[in-house]
Amino acid sequence: MEIINKGEFLIVLLSGEIDHHALKTLRGTIDAQLEHYTPRVLVLDFEKVGFMDSSGIGLILGRKRIAESFGGKVVVKGASGRVEKMLHLAGLGFLISKKVTSAN
């Protein structure tokens, strides 16, 4: 995982597998940066994620809750077809963005 602060955007480049074992570390690291920078938009980039189970949905929902607490929002980009399908089934398809201007 890599985190890039671009002012109003906080970009989290996720990679590898997002499962129960990875969740604690991801959650703690992202939350600390999210609360420190309080960005207008948290971009969760799934381009390099090879596998995600339901823990990934929890990761997204938790960060969404934190971002919304200070008026921010969450955008998911780079999701594979499988990850996109999971997001739609979980009712989170509206978070998917094919293009995030100003944060690229």
What do these coordinates show?
The chain is an alpha/beta fold. 41% of the residues lie in helices and 31% in strands. The protein has 3 helices and 4 strands. It has a 4-stranded mixed sheet, covered by helices on one side. Helix 1 (20-37) links the parallel strand 2 and strand 3 (41-52).
Largest sheet composition: 4 strands, mixed
**What does the overall shape look like?**
globular
Low-confidence stretches: none
Number of distinct beta strands: 4
| Average pLDDT level | 93
Sheet-strand content, in percent, reads 25-35%
Amino- and carboxy-terminal Cα gap: 17 Å
Q: Give the count of helical stretches.
A: 3
Q: What is the spatial order of strands in the main beta sheet?
A: 1-2-3-4
Radius of gyration computed on alpha carbons: 12 Å
The secondary structure category is alpha/beta
Helix fraction by DSSP (H/I, runs of at least 4): 40-55%
Order of helices and strands: EEHEHEH
